[in-house]
Queue: 2 jobs
Job 1
Amino acid sequence: MKVMVTGAGGYIGRRVVAALEARGDDVIAAARRPVAGWSWYPFDLGRPSDITLPAGTQLVIHLAADTSGRGMLSPASEIASAQALADQSKAADARLVFVSSQTAREDAPTDYGRTKWRIERIVLEGAGVVVRPGQVYGGAATGLFGTLVGLVRRLPLLPALLPAPSVQPVHVDDLAQAIVAAGAAMAGATVFQVGEPEPVSFTEFLRAIAQHRLRRWRLFVPVPVVLIELARRASFHRVDALERLGSLLALQPMDTRASLDMLGLCLRPLAEGMQRTHRPRRTLLAESRAVLRYVLGTSPRRDLVMRHARAVEAVREAEPLGLPDWALRRPAWLRLLESPSDLELAWRLDSATALAEATPQGAALFLRVGQPTGPARAVLGLSSAVLTEVFWLCVRTVLPRSARQTRNARTPRGRL
Amino acid sequence: MSADFDVIVIGSGPAGVSAAFPLVQAGLRVAMLDGGRTQAVAPPRADFLTARATDPHQWAWMIGRDFHALRAMDAVSPKLRVPTQAFAFEGFQLANRIAATPFVAVGSLATGGLSNAWGCGVARFSDAEARMPFPVADLGPSYREVARRMGLSGGGGDDLSDYFGLDEDCDPPVPMDRAHEAMWRRYTKARTSLCKGGFRLGRSRVAVLSRPREDRQACDLAGNCLFGCSRQAMYSASADVERLRAFPNFHWLPGHLVDSIVVDGERTVVQLREPSGTCARLAARRLFVAAGTLASTRLVLQALQRREPVPLLSCPTAAFLLWLPGLLGQPRERGFGLGQLSYALQLTGGRTAFGSTFATTGIPMWELARHLPLGRSTALQVLRDLLGSCVVGNLFLPGELSDARARLDDRDTLRIEGGWRQADVEDLLREARRKLAGAYRKMNAWMLPGSFTPGRPGSDIHYAGTLPMAADPGAGQTSVQGEVRGLRHVHVVDGACLPALPEKSHTLTLMANADRIGRLIAPTLI
Ligand SMILES: Cc1cc2nc3c(=O)[nH]c(=O)nc-3n(C[C@H](O)[C@H](O)[C@H](O)COP(=O)(O)OP(=O)(O)OC[C@H]3O[C@@H](n4cnc5c(N)ncnc54)[C@H](O)[C@@H]3O)c2cc1C
């Protein structure tokens, strides 16, 4: 499917593009500046009259917005841009998904919320769908999440607002999945509310950043909300952070269960989502080479190694397993690490087997296409397999248990 | 507003097209709607072994550029992992609001429906099996008609001729491979004693061409059956859609997703979403619901606003691996990838198990390797030397053993729960395993220990019986014409209206029944 994503270079946009690409879609990143590695289409919210859809677009995901909070763009131009997109999507028979905000309300306290609300009307009128995310977090520390992570990192003391406003967190990758699913859902003119169904207090959310993301301890000092309200009134200029807090306090809870059900989504727990994922590609490639070598019994081609690493990234979003050095150097010894409880290693082996099989090299090895065969060879092969297995079983029993574990035997959930 | 069409058919699967032919041939204005998905990844053109040995990009159709096969690792059947068939299953649950636990609910939004990916097994039902509110003989002409359209093969007289009841409609079988030839030779020798033990063997009757027909070519043993046949030797309802489109009174509306149905006086109205995403309504004098058992059930229950659970029939299944030592070390050969030989096995309580055996060449080996209790490299070594002399078998038990229910919840989602009558099924499977192992042993084929694996509830994908036909239909039932009690002029014409589900393949029967209903209704609309 040909999909245009506006705001593709942003915090959410990057993850949406990754999710679409993993699904095999043909993605066009519409942004002001080219995004490295993606096909680019010039798009500027400030110039609504210039906005066009690339030919053949079937789905438009509209993420671009002025998130500076400083009103760099006029609401009028944001709205006009949305109108242009809606009109063009309709003319081209393309579906439009607009990513709005939990603050969207006709009488929202900020321009931002009111603009979102007006754009929602435009999109819904054209039978498009709206996604309203709760508090987005996780992944790269950019966007609003980045600001919060930065605050928690810098400040040893953090405010615990009283009464505490509550947020409904959603991991940026879960949100990306929700947006992609909303693009495929049958329902039109629908608002999907995406976030944890049970709200957590904002304090809890900051604490999760400190504990699971930064692994630091932070002291929370109670701060009555009225003080903030007073500070906001008293300050002569608009103070950015205070404005934002103001809109946080005005948030209305969302009932997200029905939307999550319809999108077939199960959000990851906050503690899990806060973990930082970094995937050093070199380690991953080394592991892919090792598991492929193990299943093929010979050196894999480079393109096959790359493909396996990409599969692990795309399907598992997983970190390297942390295979010990000896296993990387002598992949046959991987036999010692295989165990029914290490599901992640099993997945790596399954995918390596599947990808290795789907090559001419694999066909020769597994199907014996173009290879000599015969009963004697088969008997020999089977006996040697049995002997090898017995050998490794013996080695396993004498080896201490601790030597037989990958560093990362936990099992990340596969995400579709 | 008057009706836009005489009849709207929801669904272009085997049921939809079978109902449409008699209506269209009678000159009625018929609109057919479906999910509109079509194949995105092409199957190989060369035969399987050649393509595997030479195609550097084979991973695109074996795994998928988006790693489809790896994403679908936990799906119940290799078919559901094949990238070339992904389109046949994608998006179904979300669009039709179907949720299932622990049941496996599979459905389609494709042109041609699930028949894009089916196993092509066909059979007629007997009176006792069908339990229709009319004699099965009434289905006779319809069975004939659909068989003629599809092109069947496998007949020629054997111990299963009566069981399948299709020999008059069948072309000769597609040639067998070495392994099946060997089993067949042994069977003919040990026949009498095997039959006495309640085991009968015969050629599989399949909707696959052994002779060319119109624009479809005959099977050439390329072995790509799992991935899809570029020669169209296997029947798919999408070929019938093409033939229907030749009629000027047939209106083809792919990509029109029906969300709900309403009865409005003399008209029936469907609310739908067009490919562009806009909502629309279409009206007709009659509505034929053939969205596949699960989707049809949701549409009908929603229209009735009926929230009591309805029974859902589905066959318990199992799979096993047979080893033919006499063939050890033989090179892989080209061959037919669907059922080559079928068996019917008598079990206690007058029940029967049915199944077929298949070559292992066209099935990716990683599918099997991950189930062996060995280290991965050893498993591969073993399979590499053993699989060439193995065949896989499947087994179906009657759908009456099913204990699943479908219920429309408050949000109008169809929730499917339950599975089988566990204790009965366990006993029967144990008995079947023992008897099959014994029977095949007499044919020099050894059931590999530990290979007999029961399938998960629903994984048979033979769903039926949610809105059963009855002579005097009660609430949630349908008339002899498939008309839903309480929804005038709405006819259910797919598996949902079958009152019973034997262990046999049921698609041919649901097609014949759809044809019969089409023939009954056509004259009343002219
Ligand atoms: C792997 C596999 C193997 C199988 N093997 C066999 C076998 O060997 N023998 C056998 O007898 N059966 C087999 N089956 C089952 C067989 O495929 C089905 O019984 C058969 O396809 C059912 O036909 P149908 O027309 O009722 O529904 P489907 O084939 O499911 O067609 C449904 C149609 O409805 C449309 N539709 C669905 N929802 C909507 C909606 N909301 N709006 C508009 N249109 C909609 C779809 O686009 C599609 O055109 C197999 C199935 C699978 C998946």
Job 2
Amino acid sequence: MIETDGRPRILIIDDEEVVLDACAQILGTQEFDLAVARDGTTGLDRVGEFHPDLVFVDLKMPGISGFEVLEGIRARDPSIVTIVITGYATLSSAVEAMQKGAYDFLPKPFTPEEFRLVTRRGLERRRLAREAARLRAERDLLREQFASIVSHELKAPLAAVQQQLMLLAHELAGVLSEAQQERLRRLQGRIADLLALIATWLRAISSDLESLRASFRPVPIPTVVEKAVDSMRVLAERKDITLETDVPTAVPPVLGDEGTLVEALVNLVGNAIKYSPAGSRVIVSAGAREGTVSLAVRDFGVGIPPEDLPRILGGLSRAVGTAGETGAGLGLVITRRIVEVHGGTLTVASTPGTGTTVTISLPAAGPSAAEAVGGAERQKEVGVR
Amino acid sequence: MTAGKRLLIVDDDPEFVEGIRGILEGAGYAVEAAYNPADGFVALRKGRFDLLLLDILMGRGAEGVMFARKMRKDPALRDIPVLIITGIREQIAFLFPGEPLHPHLVPVDELMEKPVEPALLLEKVAALLAAAERRKASGGQKAAGA
């Protein structure tokens, strides 16, 4: 949108010289910048050059009709306020003009007072529309920048504190009593929870998952499992939980975004660890059947009562983990969104007291995709493992 | 193995730098730090470092990403292994949609998320240094053969 210099710009498109003159006289040139056009085509050209706030359009003109002009203006900039001038002010033409996006109409002949009134109302409408657009743009900007603002203002200081605590624990390993070490561990645990919570909120608010589709590529399932399990290993070890994987090499790749797929699996593994008793196992397995690749995370934890199952996938449910872990219950919602963007489904099977299996099912990528994955694998060997 | 190895940390958060510097120095590395990309690049060019620990998201932007790209273009710096440290590993997928989680900005790098577990940090640093040694050795052989 182009900013004007404060004086409202008004364009009048009418084939009658006398109407143009009258309007110009009524408005004067003190308060407004005024432009005129004598036919629709010229009028539309003037819209592009003059960037009016308000356009009066005569419905009946030689050449293209007033309705076409309305459509043309709307196509160029829907925020421009249009008012139709009509000599045959029938209800139907007014209604049609409104449907084409006109804000108001002015029947001919009109008095200077009527014209001024309609002009004032139109300009007020324009001011409000611009204000709304500005607020919308501001909101979008805030939303876009939310990720970086939150990560730097909230997450970075916390991570620095945590780093210092880790150093302290490292340096004082042989000096502190068992009770003191435990206190330090609890401090670190609380900060780790906070960091995880911030990360989850960030993902829920800042991510535009739909946009990922444009850059989907074949993703090897073993890589997804390996990365997800790698990033959860420390957490599992802390709770004395064994993370096992069962991924046959023959599992076909899926078409998707590796980062978010890893994220989806990380969420599921994190939940499994959270609801597992110390000393138990969490099994991440993959399989393929009839063009569908499945990724399953199985735990032997507390399980979910059947009546709670629908709520779990619906979002924002929360339960306390076996070591008192809390969360905002966002992980599964995000996981479900990621899976859905990939054209897959998320299912939960659970028996209270026995454990839970959460399964991601995704469409397998075609054979041409498998070739591309071969290329990606070769490329990966350049990096250090 | 750690003796004599020189590490450079480029990160705009002094608290964080202090946190990992202590761990690395405790393990016997010689550590220097720069607190912005410009100073970091100057230090890297004259310091003969064996490894760089780089914060990828300094300030508000991804200045670390720019830093890494600049490094990649410089033949004198291209082969220095880089341990990329980021405050927002889990957001990289969202910041750079479609890019792999591990961005491979330089030929040899590894990615870690803040905060960094001391044992894991030492393990990754040692692995990167060892890999760089191996590459240097095999590169040297090739040169000798030619």
